[in-house]
Design brief:
The complex is a heterodimer of chains A (112) and B (115). Chain A is an all-beta fold and 112 residues long. In chain A, strands 2, 4, 5, 9, 10 and 11 form a six-stranded mixed beta sheet that branches. In chain A, strands 1-3-8-7-6 form a five-stranded antiparallel beta sheet, with no helix packed on it. In chain A, a hairpin with a 5-residue loop joins strand 4 and strand 5. Chain A starts with a strand and ends with a strand. With 115 residues, chain B is an all-beta fold. Helix content of chain B is 0%, strand content 59%. In chain B, the strands form two sheets. In chain B, strands 2, 4, 5, 6, 9, 10 and 11 form a seven-stranded mixed beta sheet that branches. Chain B has a four-stranded antiparallel beta sheet with strand order 1-3-8-7, with no helix packed on it. The radius of gyration of chain B is 14 Å and the shape is globular. Classes of the chains: A mainly beta (112), B mainly beta (115). At the A-B interface, strand 4, strand 5, strand 9 and strand 10 of A face strand 4, strand 5, strand 9 and strand 10 of B.
């Protein structure tokens, strides 16, 4: 399987704490994206980082990318109960296709 | 809903029956996708399309076929449904930009149960 792995599989934190989740992938990539999924809903795009970038910020989100280790991390600062969701990384390979490969996801629960 | 809908939203069927799921987009995007989501596996690509009549297999394509006769519609067919195809199916389209900030937009999902 080419599917990426995410860890932890599940994470439970208190409101106001930071949440960090990690993604590892297997192929060379053009970019890596993070998506969020609320229970029973479709995925929603959060942030994209290109293969030549090392860090990117968007609001309370911070993404890092280490292409030498084929890994990425997503940090959510000052978590809120509304951040409770599953988070997935997705990679776009350099093969020239747009065949996205999604990770297995991290289930985040933020306790009020 | 980012201009993408799926039908039906829920379906219960019996083993051995054919099933067709429909994905419809209103934004004229070239790329469309079908995924299945199962506990512990995240999203896995079944098939994708890069244009009318242009499709390619994904990681878990066995037992599935697709068709795209119009830009706006991407159909997923289970020729003879099996219990292992019980899953939640998501359709997506890809908004490609010149700045390479390509983003997938997902439909609401179809929950399929095969008895």
């Amino acid at each position: 399987s080419q599917q990426g792995e995410e860890d932890p599989q599940a994470l439970s934190i208190q409101e106001g704490e930071n949440a960090t989740m990690n993604c590892s992938y297997k192929t060379s990539i053009n970019n890596l994206q993070w998506y969020r999924q609320n229970s029973g809903r479709g995925l929603v795009h959060l942030i994209l980082i290109r293969s030549n970038e090392r860090e990117k910020h968007s609001g309370r989100l911070r993404v890092t990318l280490d292409t030498s280790k084929k890994s990425s991390s997503l940090l959510i600062t000052a978590s809120r109960a509304a951040d409770t969701a599953s988070y997935f990384c997705a990679t776009v390979p350099t093969s020239g296709t747009y065949k996205y490969i999604f990770g297995t996801g991290t289930r985040l629960k933020v306790l009020a | 809903d980012a201009g993408i809908t799926q039908s039906p939203r829920h379906k219960v069927t019996e083993t051995g029956t054919p099933v067709t799921l429909r994905c419809h987009q209103t934004e004229n995007h070239r790329y469309m996708y079908w995924y299945r989501q199962d506990p512990g596996h995240g999203l896995r690509l079944i098939h994708y399309s890069y244009g009318v009549k242009d499709t390619d297999k994904g990681e878990v394509s066995d037992g599935y076929s697709v068709s795209r006769s119009k830009t706006e519609d991407f159909l997923l067919t289970l020729e003879s449904a099996t219990s292992s195809q019980t899953s939640v199916y998501f359709c997506a389209h890809l908004a490609v930009t010149f700045s390479s900030t390509d983003t997938q937009y997902f439909g609401p999902g179809t929950r399929l149960t095969v008895l």
